[in-house]
Design brief:
The chain is built from 22 helices and 10 strands. It is an alpha/beta fold. Strand 9, helix 9 and strand 10 form a beta-alpha-beta unit. Keywords: DNA-binding, Phosphoprotein, Transcription, Transcription regulation.
């Protein structure tokens, strides 16, 4: 309900205005003051939408009161009513952007028309402010998305001079959430993104953060500073992961950044989070990762010995030298300082590893194998066993490097497949099957060769094709959404808006307008 302040030193005049307001059923909170001084007190006490004031009053006249009112509330609607048809008063009223200047005695029809116009002005201003705020929030999200994807901060400030970039300093930490499947693109209408965010808020009371949809597989939570909660960030991530799994029955891997000391650090922190999250390939029972947690979790070793041996075999099979080294190192680290395990078992395990390596990729003759087995059982210290196995590891790595496919050729095949099948569901597992590589290794060489991740490459391609279809065809936005591989229209529209800074319909309108003007 809007609030009107009626100011006149004659009570009868105020009663007439109140009567007319009731007669025409204007739903307003009515406040009265019998002079300018009292009216100013009311203005300072509470916000006023409409100021209906006489001009000639004791203490403070209507002109001075309206001036002070506009200083307090720049959008206040002012109506002067006076018994003096004085041009100088009217001129001053216009300079204060008054809505109207009504002469006493007030004519009911004129009063009704003026009040209707004033209320419509207020509603229009509110709508415009809401639109400006919505556009500003959209631009802020778009800026965050581009910043995280390595657009220099200074370039963004030059492109968006109207945006106050101070909001970037509100964030203390980032949480990267990654799903095994395109989660957001598969949310049914009754469980849209807003509902998903509500689930997170229920899991963490008083949790204060913003969200960025990076692609169908990833979102980032930006934690705000000074939010009142005693939970550690790792506890927050664990709660979120459990809530998502309980609600949607989907695995979500979460990576936690270091503290954000300055906005320009966000791209680097995002890269680190992606690196941390890769560990879920090696630690299948762990779902939350950070720089600190990665080193701690690596000592808990959720994988069994058989898991690690199988991972080593798979790495050799797929010629994945990165995974091979990492799993070998995991096995070494697990027993390097483990005083609770029998020396006999350690010798047995690593002799079994040596046999596995020789079986899957023949390196030595039978005599050399037996001699090496004897050496492993004769070692007095684990470091000696490790030295033997590292020597074998280096030989296998060299062989694998010689035999595996050229990365550039592999990436070309993957990119060609993406361009031919962008309308379909595309996952890292599916793409890795096309080139007979492990998902982790394909992801690594794709970034090395192209400078961006596979999910980002797919999203960029789909967005560019969608843009071309909007420009060159009359296809409906919903048809374009499905044509470029999205199932959820609202998610497609949001992704397009974050990518290009405008909705598909708005983008199409701007393109047509530019074409007409050229």
């Amino acid at each position: 309900m809007y609030r009107i302040l009626i100011v006149d030193d004659e009570k009868d005049e105020r009663n007439v205005i109140r009567f007319l307001l009731n007669k025409y059923r204007f739903q307003l909170d009515i406040i009265e003051a019998n002079n300018g001084k009292e009216a100013l007190i009311q203005l300072e006490k509470q916000p006023i939408n409409i100021l209906f004031t006489d001009i000639k009053m004791p203490f403070i006249d209507g002109i001075e009161l309206a001036t002070k009112a506009r200083e307090l509330y720049p959008t206040i609607q002012t109506i002067f009513f006076s018994g003096h048809d004085d041009f100088n008063f009217i001129k001053k009223a216009l300079s204060l952007r008054a809505v109207d200047y009504i002469l006493k005695p007030v004519k009911p029809d004129e009063f009704q028309q003026t009040l209707c116009s004033v209320i419509q002005n207020i509603k229009t201003q509110e709508k415009e402010r809401a639109q400006i705020e919505a556009n500003t929030e959209l631009l802020k999200t778009h800026i965050l998305n581009r910043l995280i994807n390595k657009t220099p901060l200074e370039k963004l400030k030059n492109e968006y001079p109207s945006i106050n970039f101070a909001y970037l300093n509100e964030y203390s930490q980032m949480i990267l959430m990654q799903f095994d499947e395109p989660f957001f693109d598969r949310l049914p209408k009754e469980k849209d993104t807003l509902f998903f965010y509500q689930q997170i808020e229920e899991a963490i009371p008083n949790f204060s953060c913003d969200f960025i949809d990076l692609n169908p597989f990833q979102i980032i939570l930006l934690l705000k500073k000074n939010w009142d909660n005693s939970l550690h960030t790792k506890q927050i991530a664990t709660r979120i992961q459990k809530k998502i799994h309980l609600e949607y029955r989907i695995n979500c891997f979460i990576s936690i950044s270091n503290e954000i000391s300055a906005p320009y650090e966000m791209p680097r922190l995002y890269e680190e989070m992606e690196k941390y999250i890769e560990d879920h390939f090696f630690y299948s029972d762990t779902y939350a990762y950070s720089k600190e947690a990665t080193s701690i979790e690596s000592k808990n070793y959720p994988e069994t010995d058989d898991d690690l041996l199988q991972a080593i075999q798979n790495a050799i099979k797929f010629a994945d030298t990165v995974s091979f080294r990492q799993n070998m190192n995991s096995l070494f680290e697990k027993y390097r300082s483990n005083l609770e395990i029998s020396h006999v078992y350690v010798r047995f395990l690593f002799s079994k590893l040596f046999q596995l390596l020789c079986h899957d990729l023949p390196l030595y003759d039978k005599r050399t194998i037996n001699k090496t087995m004897e050496a492993i059982y004769s070692c007095h210290h684990f470091s000696d066993i490790e030295e033997i196995l590292i020597s074998v590891q280096n030989e296998i790595t060299k062989r694998l490097e010689e035999e595996k496919k050229s990365p550039k050729h592999v990436i070309q095949i993957v990119k060609q497949y993406i361009h031919e099948h962008y309308q379909e569901d595309l996952s890292l597992n599916l793409l890795s099957e096309q080139v007979y590589l492990s998902p982790g290794y394909l992801s690594e060489i794709f970034i090395q060769e192209t400078g961006c991740g596979i999910n980002k490459y797919i999203k960029n391609l789909r967005m560019e094709i969608a843009k071309d279809l909007l420009h060159s065809t009359n296809m409906k936005v919903n048809d374009i959404c499905h044509n470029v591989g999205y199932q959820n229209l609202s998610y497609f529209v949001r992704s397009f808006r974050e990518h290009f800074g405008a909705s598909p319909e708005k983008y199409r309108q701007m393109e047509r307008k530019m074409k007409e003007n050229s």
